Structure formats: structure tokens, C-alpha cells
């Protein structure tokens, strides 16, 4: 009975405080604005995707030939995820091999509900919890409270629960649900059942994430001698987790595992292309000098141009594949280092993957796109070979009929698969939460309350 009495008292104290009014109003405003802005951004990206798809299909239908097909295909072409409204992540089709380690911070810079939860609401959890115990110390009411046969861990848990009810039920959920209702009723967004399940998981993990920060604030409130020191230390922890750890983890990963910069790779590829063009010109020069009268395709065959192209294509593929492999490994190191240093990367990686906008989704997209490219170019080669059989004078500049070509459709993983593949980050969040609960319980048991 005493436990629930303290829970109600803590929640009521928070609600009657001026910071609750200011925090709730600010959260409502920012959350709703972030959803509206994200929805408009999604609509713009979806419209752009439709237009680019239409233009690409028109170009391939009207004037596709072997020389121009590569330039007509838009490589970064994927329908944006409807869940990117809540966590944009890398939904603008940034290819994982083009990311340097500083680009990981892009996940933190989108103004969307994920940003509001991970920064504003986590700060609010700190500001609501930093004086949970320290105020009792300063008012000398803590010894009086504990003198009534109230166990210290009961006091801590009841105050933590009362504060979390305030943050989650009175601030986070109302603002999030209000924004969601505005999206459903006021926009053309069509959310399917899988989207609603994903949103439910986002809400659950958001509450778990906020619980960690509230617990950190209570933990520091127990340790600090007064509320002023508590707020300073709490804000330092928040700043380290939110602002410092992403940069620090990127720095550590680049020192642990070094790779060549994108500029060096671009220079190597440019030099390789220059060598390829030079070798092709040298192979064709005797035929052009002697003014041989035969089809261009026959000249290329006699000069061994196809063999030269395959040789340099293999070299280019080796450079690109090696760079992709090393980049993916370095990104993986960064993910793990950042997740160990702070709970926010695990939360952001988890929510973006649930929203189909995370790094794993980018990798899955690139994998499917590479597979489709092989299918598409095999199709083009068959079409070209068929035209050559019909007409030996058919050149690489003549139009190919691609009306029966295959079309690329990105098939994302199921929600259950996206969640199961990110169990480590769920585990890290569940590790941080009991860690600070246990530490807080241990410290309050040893604290001098006189």
C-alpha cells in the first residue's frame, strides 16, 4: 500500500510542477510538428520516386541502346518506406559503400519523431529525475520517510515508477498518439497492419529507452549531495550519451580498423579506367589505320575488345568489392562500439530497422539491387545477341526493344525478421535498464541519509 501511495505522490508532484506544464507543451508541439514535417518529406520523396521511375521507363522504352542504357538507369531508385515518417534513417537510398564513419551521425540528424524521442524526451527524463532523491536529502525528509519501516529499495522503485508514469503516460504517449491521429485523419498515408505492429514496437522500445534515462537521473540523484550537483552530473551523462559517444565511437573504429578513403578509391578507379581506354585504343589503332571495311562489331571481336573489357571489369570489381567489404566491417565495428558506449545508438539502430530505414535495410537493398542488375544486364546481352543474329550490321548505337524487360521491386524483410536480426541491440537496451536499476538499488542501500 505504501509503495503505490508513493507512486501516486511522485506522479502528482511531477504533474503539479511547472516543468511538467512546460515540458508537456513543448513535447506536444515538437512531436506533432516533427510528424507533419516528416509526412510532407515522405510525400515529396514518394512523388520524386514516381517521377524518376516514369522518366526512366520512358527513356528505356524510347531510345535505349547498348551505349546509353547505363546512363539511362537511375541506380538509387527505391520506394520510400511509410514508416520513414517516424524514423527517416537512410531512406533516401544512401549506398552503404558511400558512407564514411562520420556519416553514421546522419541517423541522429533527421528531424523526425525518433529525433524527438532520442534527444528531447531523454533530456526531459533527466530533468524530471535529477532531484528525485536529492530533494528529499536537502529537505531532510528522507530520514523521516525511511523511519516508517519503509525499505530503501521500495522508496527508489516507487519514485522511479511514479516518474516514468509521468513521462510515458502523461507526456510521451499523448503527444505521440495525437500526432499519429493527425497523420491518419489529415493525410493520405495508408498504414497497413504490419505498419501498426511496427509502430507498437517503436512505442514499446521508446518507453524502455526513456526508462533508462530516468533511471540514470535517479541514480545520480542518490549519489549527489544536492540537486545542483545532480543536475550538472546528469546533464554531463546526457551530453556524453547523445553528443559525444557517436563521434567517439567513429574515432575508435577508424583507429581499430583503417581503410582507404573514398577519394583514394575514386582515384584508383579513374586511373584504371584511363588504362582501360588506352589499351582499347591501342588494340583498335591498326584496324583504323588500315581502314578495314567491316562491321564495327567484327572489328571489336578481332581486336579482342571484349576480353580487354572483361579484364578491367574484373579489376574494377575487385577494388569495389574489397572496399565494400572493408566499409561494411568498419560500419559494423562502429555500431558495436557506439552501442556499448551509449544506449542511444542501440535504440536508433533498432527503431530505424523496424522502420525499414536502417543500415541493414540499406545493405539488403543493395544486395537485391546487385542481384537485379545481373539479371537485367544478362537480359540486355541476350537481346543484343539476338539482334546481331538477325542483323549482323546491328551496332551498339542502334535502339534495342526492351519492352519485355524485368522490373526491379525491393522486397523488404518481414517485421519479425527485422526485429530478430537486431536482438543484440534489444539485449543492450535491456542490459542498460537493469544495470542502472541494480546500481541505484545498491547505492541507496549504502547511502548515508542522516
Query: Quaternary status of these chains?
Result: single chain
Class computed from helices, strands and strand pairing? mainly alpha
Number of strands: 0
Radius of gyration: 29 Å
Mean of residue pLDDT values: 85
Task: Estimate the helix proportion, in percent.
Answer: over 70%
Number of helices: 16
**String of helices and strands:** HHHHHHHHHHHHHHHH
* First-residue to last-residue Cα separation: 25 Å
Largest sheet: none
Shape: elongated
Q: What fraction of residues sit in β-strands?
A: under 5%
Regions with pLDDT < 50 over 5+ consecutive residues?
A: 96-103
Describe this structure in words.
The chain is an all-alpha fold and 450 residues long. The protein contains 16 helices and no strands.
Write the layout of secondary structure elements.
Blueprint: H1 2-16, H2 18-63, H3 69-72, H4 113-129, H5 134-138, H6 142-146, H7 152-186, H8 193-223, H9 227-256, H10 262-289, H11 296-303, H12 305-341, H13 343-354, H14 359-390, H15 415-420, H16 423-446
Helix pairs in contact: 1-7, 2-4, 2-7, 4-7, 4-8, 4-9, 7-8, 7-16, 8-9, 8-13, 8-16, 9-12, 10-12, 12-13, 13-16
